[in-house]
Design goal:
single chain; two-stranded antiparallel sheet; 46% helix; 216 residues; globular
Length: 216
Amino acid sequence: MKYKYIVWDFNGTIIDDVGVGIESVNPLLEKRGLKTIDSVEEYREKFTFPIIKYYSALGFDFDKEPYEKIAHEWVENYKRFSPSIKMTDGVRELIAYFDKLGLKQMILSASEREMLEAKLFELGISDCFGEILALDNVYAHSKLDIAIAYFDTRDKREYLMIGDTTHDAEVARELDIDIALVCAHHSRKKLELTGYPVFDSMKELSDKIKSGEFAI
């Protein structure tokens, strides 16, 4: 095997929360008389990192109210819908497969750590991950800084990232580690522009890993 470690993104990768992301932001848009997001396809085209750029593209005016206020309002909606969020199809099986192979697994996320850990516990997979790298706030600026600090003294050739956004690709490129991208918060078209391998679903990635077509 090429890798000893799997680095999972969380939102959209381990958990399927695209729909909840839309449900969480639309009430904020309606409240301010802004156009709501009408489809997953529209969401995937508009969603970006840092999240402040995404909110700006949706029409939020930070001269009228601070980004931090909007972020907290979004988080309250997200927490309300959170119990309905399930694991992405195929993830549980792929985590178990990696564990069987003896690969160590970790999470690298731009989510707030406490909220992330609560969801892992709810899903019953807290013990699957030796390390959790996440943020200490709800503003979802970037996970790059914590990633750079963590990987500074490590052999990056031993790591494979699995993510679902161009931000994940940017982090992998900056760290100089390999990544596989699965369509969730971003469309295939956007992900393919990164130049990294792209898969339509976690099941497709899982099947290709198990068949050896995507070597790990």
